[in-house]
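This part of the workshop introduces the protein records we will be handling. An example says more than a description, so a record of this kind follows:
>
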Amino acid sequence: MSSRSPFKRRDFRLLLFGQTTAQLGTQVSGVAVPLLAVVTLDASPLQLGLVTASGTVAFVLIGLPAGAWVDRWRRRPVLVGADLVRAVVLATVPLAAMFGVLGIWQLVVVSLLAGVARVFFDVGYQSYLPSVVGREGLLAGNSAMESIRAGGQVAGPGVGGWAVSVLGAANVVLVQAVTFAASAVSLLAVKTREPVPAASASAGLGAEIREGLVFVLRTPVLRATAITSAAGNFAFAVASAVSFVFMVRTLGLSPTGIGLVLAAGSVAALAGAALTPLLARRAGSARVIWLALAATGPVAMLSPLAGPGWAVGLLVVGTAAGELGQIVYAVTNVSLRQRLCPERMLGRVNATMRFLMMGLFPLGALLGGVLGEVAGARQALWVAAVVVLLSPLPVYAALRGVRDVEDLGGEGARAGVPSPGRVRRGGAGR
């Protein structure tokens, strides 16, 4: 490793440990909560859609002011508080189940409160990382964190499905509560001092929010990636409202089988995270942003064709293709955003992008639930697959003819347009 490697920093290792435990717990619970709703509480697609939507509606309600607040505050206390809130509210699920009073509406409220904490954590984390690793360690730090997320996706669903079979879904939710507590402890051990946030010279909270929103909307590349990401998240939300119903009631899979299907599909995410630097070099760090989605979208349309028996493999292949495309897109898109964003606005720009990307998620979850009730789970999955197929179009239009992120250089980076004389065309690798 180079002298600039973030892995040589104790505080980065602590941050990485916290995220490892939290991501594993998140993925384990990601299997347990839907199975708890569908199998234990006999939830309908609409009810499962409500649970899913409640977990992300906070991005719409407080996403923009959260960015302005994070820019005003030190980030580590925000992250610790968010982890502790999630640990406490999730712990109420096994407690209620133990006393026989757990219901769908408690899952909705727990998802809502955990979603609020997630907003602050997600915005604060992306803004805190530069304080821990320095600007020179951002690329390696982001890659490591994304690999951890992908690794959790590989191990978590399989462990979660097995644990639900052995311990019961409600008890498995306790695992996630413990992992968030462990993440909070690791963050408390970080010794890096954050700089005191600069006093805002703007007219107030509204003006700070507006500054971040205007920057994103007036930067063509950021605006396009926000639209593409919003479409992808909308499709995922539609599918998430019915996917567990589809696997349990249409494909006849057991909790262990569901975990194995999801884990097998998520191996592609881990591979994608590892291969992203190579793909970016071969195809171009800007071109690969839209190309990853365009190449995997058609394959992802295999998922709605799945059926019992051997045809379950179509779901595995479709899910794997979707995960691969999304992970490559995510890593390269974040790198592009960090290049275009002024440091003083990092929290607000991250929050604005999260707001725009996640704003349609609750609507998608509710729509998926309604479609599942009215037309069936398979038809809802078809709607999601078509949206995924079309999602690369906005970012393709914005980056057409641009090979590398460096081609968006100088003042062109601020406008999100190619610099004169730097655009390279041709096949991958040229």
